[in-house]
Design brief:
The complex is a heterodimer of chains A (827) and B (288). In chain A, a hairpin with a 6-residue loop joins strand 5 and strand 6. The radius of gyration of chain A is 28 Å and the shape is globular. Chain A is built from seven helices and 51 strands. Among the domains of chain A are: 126 residues, Carboxypeptidase-like, regulatory domain (Immunoglobulin-like, Sandwich), CATH 2.60.40; 426 residues, Beta Barrel (Maltoporin, Chain A). Chain A has 827 residues and is mainly beta. About 1% of the residues of chain A have low confidence. Chain A has a 22-stranded antiparallel β-barrel. Chain B has 288 residues and is mainly β. Chain B has two domains: 93 residues, Immunoglobulin-like, CATH 2.60.40; 131 residues, no CATH class. Chain B contains three helices and 18 strands. In chain B, 38% of the residues are buried. The N terminus of chain B is likely disordered. Classes of the chains: A mainly beta (827), B mainly beta (288). Chains A and B meet through helix 5, strand 44, strand 45, strand 49 and strand 50 of A and helix 1, strand 1, strand 3, strand 4 and strand 15 of B. Strand 44 of chain A pairs antiparallel with strand 4 of chain B.
């Protein structure tokens, strides 16, 4: 405890130092340049653009809303604004008063052009205090071969070092030894509690609606909290504020359509984006009569994103965005009189207001709604079961950005969430009699936080990000606490009732964060970070797979908040005028109050009981080293990542208290992503991934009970599935637009001729001719047809009497080699 | 437009997932004593003692039998050493049996087994028996001559009662068999008067054609079957053992099941169960 207090003290004094320095600095003769950076082609605000003052060799980046502010002494300056995939812009300004500078960046028409202004390329990799943070653009993601043609954000981040996939058919991802519930996934600031469709084959993020992705796996800034491992911050597009556009794609299993356009030119815009799969509809005509598929069985999912924004004045902007997505599964087997209806999905809604108090103080206020629910309905002869679980949040937050001098970027704010948890609630009927599963149990809790952080340059070489967050959590009634008798009946022997709003249990704590960058020279730097995080919500999973049935539970009288401490140290170096980025990062992470179900827990033990009565608690720790090399520009670009890591856990109540590897412990994890832009028509890409197999628990012996053989399981996670590796390739063909237009014109001429019309009047619609674009994406998933294990399980075979009774390990793999084709269009 | 066929072909490919055998070298396992013992009201104790077998080798019956165990039970006031006997109505026909200590409802019994140099012991209780109100056979539509064994009973109010159902067809089954789902407690049915049904239990060592895995209707009782029912109350440790045992059986060969470790009440490093059964008996008579 003393050790931690010293850290608080240190972080506080660093913060104080920064604030005092910024106040002193303000007294000199200084002025502010502020404004927004936008994409000239569609009016989208640019997140994370580099704004650099040549003469001072200093700069900043635009915030999530495209805003920047730099305060400097009076003088004549060259402001350079740059962003990957855009032509850099230079502006000469005479700074003798506060100046507004709105910059429109033009996309680089053909990205293979090597001639970008050298020297001003983004050196953020080396210069920023970001540790373990990666920003990806949709343009980059769209180049990577996509599974079944569906461009996927989550699949792409799993190609980065330190981020691990759980394997085919699992959308959950693991960051630096953290569990899937330890990632804070935000979609336009709203928490997404389950980011996967179809048992993880696809993520819920429709690539057409996404603007940018920011992943933080270490050195989490103080404005984020509530999770131990990472933040995945996804921002949706605002919509084209210049002109109306439609784009979409038709793929083998799904189609997408996005419409966007101005509400009022350069003032407000909207975007609406939808996606639906149709495997069921495509396969149904081929199903046998009387088969489940013919009887209405099937599966599909859909996503709908919508967003509007409007600039009320130069200082005020409002945004409203929403998302709804559902997975729907019907299974109807008339012959077995067996019926299942299952649906799950997220809904989010966000209203935001940006306000500029002055050119140094930016504010964003948000009201956010977030909901995840899972519904299951099963009917079989004489038996009916309904199951429901979910989590719902009402969230209000306010965030300020204050830019007092060029050396400081101060952020502060507050956040409040009201959670409603519905751990699995069941109702069932057995041959007409209602079974007693008790009333629907909901759990209510308040979670709030305040934070302050400063990103500042202490000296030319040392830059610091210091932050402090205080978080508070309180579970309130109505609530029933059940005490069970674990020895004689396992049943509830005592109930304590809490009335509405009565405090059940509260927790709180300070979370210091500190990142330090030491610049060795203009090309390389060393960065270190320390973060301490508290997590009050937890995902409990009985299965070895991540399933939509996994339920979220709050901290309670029994469940202490998870506590995570991470130390990381990295060396960052850029080569060839920032054309190559590289880094080596090491980390050590300590996780306390980790949760698992007790050994021997059965799925129905939660019913008529508090879910947390089935939990057992322990600790975890993880360490590793990550290597990353990225070539950003040129015809040939891409990256290589490799991670060596260890993730261990120890629970007094599991594995006889012995240390064991977490199921997602990966000794080796490597990925290679390569893109080659051959010419204007053809681009090629390939991905190769390798990962050590998941740790699993296997049977080590069998024994005879009641005439059957049953298995005895060995040490927890003591064995490994076979390694996972796979290669994908893709090619994108973008036909010459002029040729297409010419062909269309020819078709129209023929039609006119048939009808006997005057062919000299043939004209392709102007707007269409100007904007129409299309492309074909061909991809092959799993080129060398590797059978990667989805699940390893065991089956017994042979007979005791013959003396050949034995156990056989089997694996189920999901995807053999899979080619796909998608047609994308835009007009 | 010629590419349309791809739109159909690929999803069909996707729906097709595959399983295959893999080699996984598993070391360890074995060297544990396995106990399957019970004591029923009005009957002496019966205990089968075997040892477990590492998964790396095929199982041979000779290797798992323990014929030289010292097995004794105590009811608190007296102790009896059990004798190895041959019993064709047992899952393994070599059973350690008692004769002087007879099970009494409400009594607790301690079992001690010394075998393979290990001493294991366990304690169980015979709960008060609860009789079924009525029993009958009912067809499972659309069948009219195949169905399940049904029973109505009243669970005493107050949570904590647990049950295990056994049944036997005279001349067809050599012993009482518990089907999957035979073990349950009153967590969801406390104090209710409820109808339950059970499938026919299959003897894993049966050589009868009716019991073959290929027979889709093997879990049914026929209209013409006579069915003897043994309905037992059990204590919590016995409930947990049989619940986890049934879950483990169902997960054998099921890729989506999570590994279930069977919760034993044997202390001393052994595996298995020492169960007390508070039994009552009923008969379903055949229908013409």
């Amino acid at each position: 405890m003393k050790f931690i207090s010293v850290k608080y003290l240190f972080v506080c004094s660093v913060l104080l130092l920064g604030v005092v320095e910024s106040i002193v600095a303000q007294e000199k003769n200084k002025y502010t340049i502020s404004g927004y950076v936008k994409d000239v082609s569609n009016g989208e605000y640019s997140i994370g653009s580099n704004v650099f003052i040549k003469e001072l060799k200093k700069g900043t980046t635009t915030n999530q809303y495209g805003f920047f502010s730099i305060t400097a002494e009076q003088g004549v300056y060259t402001v350079v604004v740059s962003y990957l995939g855009y032509n850099s812009t230079e502006k000469k300004i005479t700074l003798d008063k506060n100046t507004t500078l709105n910059i429109d960046l033009a996309p680089t028409v053909f990205t293979t052009r090597e001639v970008e202004i050298t020297g001003e390329r983004n050196d953020k990799n080396v210069s920023s205090t970001d540790v373990g943070a990666i920003k990806l653009d949709m343009a980059e993601i769209k180049k990577i071969p996509a599974f079944m043609g569906e461009v996927d954000v989550l699949k792409t981040i799993q190609l980065l070092p330190g981020v691990k996939s759980a394997g085919d058919g699992n959308a959950g991802f693991y960051v630096r030894g953290g569990g899937p519930d330890q990632n804070l996934i935000l979609l336009d600031e709203a928490v997404v509690y389950n980011a996967s469709h179809l048992l993880g084959f696809f993520s819920v993020f429709n690539g057409d609606a996404v603007k940018s992705i920011n992943l933080i796996k270490g050195g989490m800034p103080a404005q984020y909290g509530g999770r131990l491992a990472s933040v995945l911050d996804i921002t949706l597009k605002d919509g084209n504020s210049k002109q109306f556009h439609a784009n979409g794609g038709i793929g083998l299993i799904s189609s997408r359509l996005t419409l966007e356009g101005p509400i009022k030119k350069d003032t407000g815009s909207f975007i609406i984006s939808a996606r639906r799969t149709y495997i069921d509809a495509v396969a149904r005509p081929f199903a046998k009569a009387g088969s489940p598929l013919k009887n209405g069985s099937g599966y599909y999912f859909y996503d709908l994103n919508a967003k509007v924004n409007y600039r009320l004045s130069q200082k005020d902007r409002v945004f409203a965005s929403g998302y709804i997505g559902r997975d729907i599964l019907h299974f109807n087997d008339k012959s077995a009189q067996f019926k299942i209806n299952m649906s799950w999905g997220n809904s989010t809604a966000v209203v935001r207001w940006n306000h500029l108090f002055n050119d140094k103080l930016f504010m964003n206020t948000s009201a956010i709604f977030s909901d995840y629910k899972f519904l299951l309905d099963v009917e079989q002869t004489g038996f009916e079961l309904k199951l429901f679980s979910g989590i719902r949040d009402w969230n209000a937050k306010v965030d300020f950005g204050y830019f007092p001098t060029i050396r400081h970027q101060i952020k502060f704010g507050a956040n409040y969430v009201f959670h409603t948890f519905t751990p699995t609630s069941v109702s069932a009927k057995l041959s007409g009699t209602d079974l007693d599963f008790g009333p629907v149990k909901r759990i209510f809790a308040h979670e709030s936080a305040v934070y302050f952080s400063d990103d500042f340059e202490l000296t030319n070489r040392i830059k610091i990000h210091a932050g402090l967050r205080y978080s508070y959590f309180m579970q309130v009634g109505p609530f029933d606490r059940y005490t069970t008798d674990p020895i004689n009946t396992g049943q509830v022997v005592d109930t304590v009732h809490y009335t509405a709003n009565q405090k059940v249990k509260n927790y709180g704590g300070l979370e210091p964060r500190l990142n330090v960058r030491y610049e060795l020279n203009s090309k390389s730097s060393v960065k270190a970070s320390y973060t301490y995080n508290l997590q009050y919500v937890h995902l409990a999973s009985l299965s070895a797979l991540s399933l939509p049935t996994d339920t979220w539970v709050p901290s309670s009288q029994l469940v202490q908040p998870q506590k995570g401490t991470q130390y990381s140290l990295g060396y960052f170096r850029n080569f060839k005028e920032n054309g190559y980025e590289s880094s080596v990062e090491t980390y050590y992470k300590d996780m306390r109050n980790q949760i698992e179900y007790k050994e021997g827990t059965l799925p129905w033990d939660d019913a008529n009981n508090n879910a947390d009565n089935q939990f057992t608690f322990g600790k975890g720790w993880a360490y590793g080293v990550e290597f990353f090399l990225k070539k950003k520009f040129g015809k040939f670009n891409g990256w290589i990542g490799y991670t060596l890591s260890y993730t261990k856990r120890q629970f007094p109540g599991i594995n006889l208290g012995k240390v064991y590897y977490a199921k997602y412990d990966r000794r080796h994890d490597a990925s290679i992503v390569l893109n080659y832009d051959l010419n204007k028509k053809w681009t090629f890409a390939t991905v190769w991934v390798y990962a050590t197999g998941n740790a699993i628990t296997v049977p080590v012996s069998y024994y005879f009970i009641d005439g059957n053989f049953v298995t005895e399981y060995g040490d927890r996670n003591a064995f490994r599935m076979p390694a996972y590796h796979r290669m994908d390739v893709s090619a994108t063909y973008t036909p010459d637009r002029n040729k297409i237009i010419e062909r269309r014109k020819q078709r129209m001429v023929k039609r006119y001729e048939k009808k006997g019309k005057d062919i000299t009047t043939v004209a392709v619609p102007k707007k269409w001719a100007k904007n129409y674009e299309s492309s074909w994406s061909f991809s092959v998933f799993n080129v060398y047809n590797r059978h990667n294990p989805y699940i390893v399980y065991f089956a017994t075979q042979g007979s005791l009497l013959k003396g050949d009774y034995k156990i056989q390990a089997k694996q189920m793999y999901l995807f053999p080699i899979l080619p796909s084709i998608t047609w994308n269009f835009k007009f | 437009m010629k590419k349309w066929f791809l739109f159909v072909l690929i999803p069909l490919l996707l729906l097709h997932s595959c399983t295959e055998n893999i080699d996984l070298t598993i070391i360890g396992g074995g060297n544990k004593v396995v106990i399957e013992g019970s004591i029923e009201n009005g009957k002496p104790a019966e205990v089968i003692v075997t040892r477990n077998s590492p998964v790396s080798k095929p199982v041979k019956l000779n290797n798992i039998l323990i014929l030289d165990a010292q097995v004794s039970i105590s009811n608190g006031s007296s102790t009896e050493t059990l004798t190895l006997m041959i019993d064709s109505a047992s899952s393994i026909p070599l059973v350690y049996k008692g004769s002087t200590i007879i099970g009494v409802a409400g009594q607790s019994y301690t079992l001690t087994v010394v075998a393979d140099g290990q001493t294991n012991y366990a304690v169980t209780t015979i709960p008060q028996p609860i009789a079924l109100d009525s029993v009958w056979w009912k067809a499972d539509p659309p069948h009219d001559s195949l169905g399940y064994a049904w029973a109505r009973f009243t669970d005493p109010s107050g949570i904590g009662n647990a049950y295990r159902w056994f049944a036997k067809r005279p001349k067809k089954d050599r012993r009482y068999l518990a089907p999957l789902g035979a073990t349950f407690d009153d967590k969801f049915i406390d104090g209710k008067n409820i109808d339950i049904f059970n499938l026919r239990g299959i003897d894993p060592t049966s050589t009868s054609d009716e019991d073959k895995e290929t027979k889709e209707d093997r879990f049914y009782y026929k209209k013409t079957d006579t069915i003897y029912i043994k309905f037992c109350t059990i204590d919590y440790a016995t409930l947990r053992f049989y619940e986890t045992y049934e879950t483990a059986l169902q997960s054998n060969g099921n890729p989506f099941a999570s590994p279930t470790s069977i919760q034993s009440n044997i202390k001393g490093g052994g595996l298995g169960i020492w169960a007390g059964f508070g039994a009552t008996f009923d008969t379903i008579m055949p229908k013409p």
